[in-house]
Design a protein that fits this description.
The complex is a heterodimer of chains A (about 375) and B (about 350).
Chain A (H helix, E strand, L loop, with lengths): L9 H14 L6 E7 H9 L10 E8 L1 H4 L2 H11 L4 E6 L13 H6 L4 E4 L2 H10 L4 E8 L4 H14 L4 E7 L2 H10 L1 H4 L8 E5 H7 L5 H7 L3 E4 L3 H16 L5 E3 L11 H10 E3 L2 E4 L3 E4 L3 E3 L8 H4 L15 H4 L32 H19 L1
Parallel strand pairs in A: 1-2, 1-7, 3-4, 3-5, 5-6, 7-8, 8-9
Antiparallel strand pairs in A: 10-13, 11-12
Helix pairs in contact in A: 1-12, 2-16, 6-7, 7-13
Chain B lengths: L25 H15 L2 H4 L13 E9 L5 E2 L2 E2 H14 L4 E12 L4 H18 L2 E10 L7 E11 L15 E4 L5 H11 L15 H11 L3 E5 L5 H13 L2 E5 L7 H10 L13 E4 L1 H12 L8 E7 L6 E4 L5 E3 L13
Parallel strand pairs in B: 4-5, 9-12
Antiparallel strand pairs in B: 1-6, 2-3, 4-6, 7-10, 7-11, 8-10, 9-11, 12-13
Helix pairs in contact in B: 1-4, 3-4, 6-9
The chains are: A alpha/beta (about 375), B alpha+beta (about 350).
């Protein structure tokens, strides 16, 4: 595949791996968190950890929108789609995310709920046009990458007077979550290991740019490298982080300069800011309530806000107390340290946030990484 | 003097199936004789019995059954009818057998167009004739509108396997080679592209095909050195190898760079966040072959049109955890696990 194979070149990868090996100091450990599930997926799928020196450890962060969606929001969506007039449009891997009682949208669909798996907001618009008497609700989820298409969808719905289309908004913000990881007392209390640097998601920065991360790097003294999702992107980002740590720098660097700028996509940001505003707080699975980390529709667009329209109120449900997701996504524990991992909590029956989608830390570890740890244990 | 009752001809062009076509009356008889017998025509069906009698050759009999509920019914490279014939032939053939006879049971939704039914039946007949296999028994049921997704087909296949050949998923041994007959994921991607309207300049076409002739040349080259054969349909290569690993109590180690995947399939999978090794195939097989004859079997596969892209992709290894592992193109390792439920596209 043109423009993809070039970033999957084994020889170049091994060259970067050698550079990392040559530049790391044997006297210290390097712990880098890849915030985004897309990076977790790349690291696992390409077996990148096998190319890294033993003292460079990747910590899988919370950055998969499905993983961090709290059970309460799934409960709310199921309550919503219990209404016979509602057609709920969802993105694919949200279907398996568990609610508070282990129920999911997949199960609700099997029980007769009108749930449609869509690939874009355009599908929801098409459905609303085809069924003007239905209440078509789009389950909006994702970080800054997927927010502009939701904003555009609302614009189109307004223009076309699609009165039956609304949004159940669950869009969240990356920098706020990163801030929370570094500061949230709930996480601090888990005795998490220090994080020496972050790999930030490039697709988010194509929208917001690299600038929003600068205060974080400054405040917490952590280097951040915004990186693409191809394996060579990730390897190069790790090398950049190693160099920053060695040189005692904590800057925001842009590995993905082929698409990311400091300012980001001004038009997309304007579109989002016209339609959405910050929630005071939003619940994240595994992190609890995080201030200023979620978006909601502005009052002017209340007619398109499913929560207002159907008067579905915020629920609060507790995570499974035995679940160690909170510590895992902080790097304090590994998936195998959780007694639920691989027993009651598997990709087929996920309990915690990290097992929900294929990009979650536990799910990725289950699918791709178990063998590495087992072999490390056997040889150590 | 008997008077022949007048009966309107089947309107194959514009007509639709209604409940009378499944009621056991004249309309049903007309549908069977005018459409199915026309399509499948052979000496057994011509006798119009509820069963067919056939001679049994030397060897052991092989029997399989399968249901087809594919959506959409027509896809690039085939339709539910040709798929049903190929799929059932392949399930028989994976035992090393020569497939001989099929049965076909149709559950048709009221309102289904005759033109579609005829196209599907004709393609079944053509697929069976091309494979030298006969559809010798069948059944037709019509259900009310909304009770089926257009058309479901259930098939049974019967074949004969030669004495001395006993392929089974519990027979893989450490050191055996893993061979695949060609590129993976074609069928699943063809179906998904059609479902999701994912269009590419290069259309991905289903690999739906009958593999028994390929199996015959493999058996001729490898005989009982072929331990296991499977066609990796739902769940793809990953599911097939995990099943064999569990049944044979060992693991597999694969080389990612050896696994053939067409660029258009790889691109579609990238786009949808899927993995080709989890995607269904309908014209490919996986063979676990003893190392001494693996090269000979692979050469025989490559010499056959349905195996021209065949590849040796790895080996069976001792592993009490029964992991299927893969050396990535990067020099790292990963586990190739079963698919978890339905393969769903990722959000971002």
């Amino acid at each position: 595949m043109k423009y993809a194979d070039e970033f999957r070149d084994k020889a170049i990868a091994q060259g970067i791996a050698r550079a990392i090996g040559a530049e790391v100091s044997s006297r210290r450990a390097y712990r880098f968190m890849e915030f985004c599930g897309g990076h977790t997926h790349a690291i696992s799928r390409y077996g990148l950890e096998d190319l890294l020196p033993a003292n460079v450890r990747m910590i899988h962060g919370p950055g998969c929108p499905v993983c961090v969606l709290p059970a309460s929001r799934i409960d709310m969506a199921i309550r919503l789609v219990d209404r016979p007039e509602v057609t709920l449009c969802v993105y694919g891997d949200l279907m398996r995310a568990p609610g508070s009682q282990g129920q999911s949208l997949l199960r609700a669909k099997a029980l007769g709920a009108d749930i449609r798996m869509v690939y874009s907001t355009l599908d929801a618009i098409r459905l609303a046009e085809q069924a003007p008497r239905r209440e078509v609700v789009f389950f909006a989820i994702g970080f800054e990458t997927t927010t502009p298409p939701t904003a555009v969808m609302i614009r189109i719905a307004e223009k076309k007077r699609l009165r039956g289309l609304s949004v159940f908004c669950n869009h969240v913000l990356t920098p706020s979550a990163m801030h929370s990881i570094l500061e949230n007392p709930k996480i601090r209390d888990t005795g998490g290991v220090p994080i020496d640097g972050f790999i930030g998601p490039a697709h988010v920065s194509t929208i917001i740019g690299t600038q929003p991360y600068e205060p974080l790097a400054e405040q917490f003294g952590k280097p951040i490298v915004i990186a693409g999702f191809e394996p060579l992107d990730v390897m190069q980002a790790i090398l950049m982080l190693v160099r920053q740590v060695n040189e005692d720098r904590y800057e925001v660097e842009n590995q993905y300069s082929r698409a990311v700028t400091r300012e980001g996509n001004r038009r997309a940001k304007e579109e989002v800011s016209q339609i959405f505003e910050l929630r005071e707080q939003f619940e994240w699975r595994g992190l609890g309530l995080v201030p200023n980390s979620g978006l909601k529709l502005k009052r002017a667009y209340a007619q398109f806000d499913a929560e207002t329209r159907f008067a579905i109120h915020d629920l609060r449900v507790a995570d499974n107390p035995a679940c160690e997701c909170c510590a895992i996504l902080r790097g304090a524990k590994r998936p195998v340290d959780c007694k639920l991992f691989g027993t009651v909590c598997t990709p087929e029956t996920p309990i915690g946030s990290c097992m929900v989608s294929s990009e979650g830390a536990c799910a990725a570890y289950w699918a791709y990484g178990r063998v590495r740890d087992e072999q490390l244990r056997r040889t150590s | 003097m008997s008077v022949k009752a007048y009966q309107r001809k089947l309107d194959v062009k514009n007509g639709r199936v209604d409940l009378s076509h499944g009621s056991g009356g004249r309309a049903m008889a007309q549908l069977i004789s005018g459409l199915f017998h026309q399509a499948f025509g052979n000496e057994w069906l011509a006798r119009c019995n509820d069963q067919s009698t056939f001679d049994v050759a030397a060897g052991r009999m092989v029997m399989t059954t399968d249901g087809y509920v594919v959506s959409p019914l027509f896809f690039p490279g085939g339709n539910i009818g040709s798929l049903a014939v190929h799929g059932t032939i392949n399930d028989v053939a994976m035992s090393g057998a020569r497939p001989l006879y099929l049965s076909a049971s149709f559950i048709i939704e009221e309102g289904f167009p005759f033109s579609d039914l005829k196209a599907i039946a004709d393609s079944m007949g053509a697929a069976a004739r091309a494979a030298d296999v006969y559809i010798i028994a069948g059944d037709t049921k019509v259900v009310e509108r909304g009770k089926a997704d257009g058309l479901f087909i259930s098939t049974t296949g019967i074949g004969i396997v030669a004495d001395g050949l006993d392929l089974s998923a519990d027979k893989a041994r450490v050191g055996d080679r893993v061979l695949v007959s060609g590129s993976l994921g074609d069928h699943g991607v063809a179906i998904m592209s059609k479902r999701q309207n994912v269009a590419f300049q290069t259309e991905v076409v289903s690999d739906s095909a009958a593999l028994h002739n390929l199996v015959a040349v493999m058996v001729a080259a490898g005989g009982s050195s072929i331990r296991v054969m499977r066609d990796p349909t739902r769940g793809g290569l990953a599911a097939t190898l995990n099943e064999i690993a569990h049944q044979s109590d060992l693991g597999f180690r694969l080389e990612e760079t050896s696994i053939p995947v067409k660029p258009a399939v790889a691109a579609t999978c990238e786009l949808l966040g899927l993995d080709p090794i989890h995607v269904a195939n309908e014209g490919k097989l996986v063979a676990i072959v003893a190392p001494d004859l693996a090269d000979a079997v692979l050469a025989a596969m490559k010499a056959h049109p349905l195996g021209s892209d065949a590849a040796d992709i790895g080996e069976a290894v001792a592993d009490d955890r029964k992991f299927v592992q893969m050396a990535t193109g990067f020099g790292g390792r990963r586990i190739v696990d079963w698919l978890w439920g339905e393969q769903l596209p990722r959000i971002c």
